[in-house]
Amino acid sequence: MQCFTKAGFCQGEKLAANADLSAVAKARGIDFFLVAFVDLRGVLRTKMVPSSAIKQIQRDGAGFAPAATWLDFGPHAADLLVMPDASTLLQVPFSPELAVVMGDCFIEGKEVAQSPRAVLKAQIAEAQKRGYVLKSGVEAEFFILSAQNDSISDERDIQSKPCYDAQSMMRRYALLADIVKTLNACDFGVYQTDHEDANGQFEINWHYRDCLTTADQHVFFKWAVKTLAERHGFRATFMPRPFSNLSGNGCHIHCSLWSGEKNVFEGKESISDLALQFLGGVLAKAPSFCAVTNPTVNSYKRLNGAATASGYTWSPNRVSWSGNNRSHMVRVPDNDRFELRLADGAVNPYLLPALMMACGFWGIDTKADPAKCSFPANVNMYEIPDGSPKLEGIASLPRNLIDATRALESDKDLSALLGADFMRAFIKLQKLEWADFSAHLSTWELMQTLDC
Ligand code: ADP
Ligand code: MG
Ligand code: MG
Ligand code: MG
Ligand code: MG
């Protein structure tokens, strides 16, 4: 099945934030806009607006009932108005009459401080004050499932080490090619696609950008992957660990910090002293921010996870780092960036880079020293048993969502850095999630306890 209708499709010039979308619609043949925002649980919410109405929506905003989304508002709250940011416009290459535009959330003329894009923008403003831009690249792994029963869609994809397998990739080539063509027609700069370490799992890598662009792209990426998978008769999932015997979906983030054209993370042999302080902040705060990078009950089946069919989980269980070594929470693959391997597929695309800046700048301000969590490059972290003296002073990651949420709640630095509105709303939602999970009677409980 071919979903890609216009070969060589071109987006045209990047627009100004307040560009006239009605005129753009006429010039580019756009019939509909999806005016969209992401809530605190990472759900992409949208209104489909015909181009005849986009002028009015640009003036007044697209209206939503805030309590119907995960932003922590009651039913009595006034309308949530989403103001499109025209600079994010992407005309959808496989349905060119449709365009996606991300928006910012306002209620009664005031920006909603806890909305994830606002949380990121606040950190970007702080970076700007310091003369920096964070550039990031994300690796959002996903599974392609059967739309009928949520099993792995390719029944021949059964090797214990399926990573990079050419034949399994060819059986999903049509879908993957449609996704990559879509992204590249949207100027993502995709440079590779592979079958990942779990059966049915894939990864697509594109070029890093300033962190707001990457976050908006990350949102579009998840939407395009899911939409195209459905058009091809499959279902795509970014769920952190959908299969207990297979590696989960990570969402690594690579970070570098720029002052104009200069990457100030670049050092000689390894990353610079400034980058080490930034990294020191990220490492020190990881046990507290895990509730954000790993935001679901299921996330904790990936972290601290049981071994997989391929041999490794590829996910961390402790706060450690080293050079080019994938057994740690942070890897430094080059002398100009670091990679945080903690976050999973459920992470909010805006909150992830916001955390990097909040904790990184805190690390610079407090001269945080990452040395105490560093390991020599040749250590396999997965082989060090619990209780080993080598782990003295090395923090563990939370075991479950409620421990993670309590750690976040008790971190007063993070509250000051991320803002009280965000912390209150996010922690409340995470506690509700845990309460909902705890009230759920599982098959495991029945099996373990019926005969007690
Ligand atoms: P790996 O699987 O080895 O971690 P990938 O190639 O899958 O690496 O992903 C690397 C990501 O890092 C990409 O999104 C890439 O654009 C990004 N990246 C590369 N260099 C930088 C940099 N200097 N700053 C931020 N991101 C970077
Ligand atoms: Mg209505
Ligand atoms: Mg990768
Ligand atoms: Mg990967
Ligand atoms: Mg990686």
UniProtKB/TrEMBL annotation:
Recorded family membership: Belongs to the glutamine synthetase family.
Natural source organism: Durusdinium trenchii
Origin: domain of life: Eukaryota
An annotated Gene Ontology molecular function: ligase activity
Pfam families: Gln-synt_C (PF00120)
UniProt keyword ATP-binding present: yes
Limits of the GS catalytic domain: 116-452
Protein name according to UniProt: Glutamine synthetase (GS) (Glutamate--ammonia ligase) (Glutamine synthetase III) (GSIII)
Domain (GS beta-grasp) ranges: 28-110
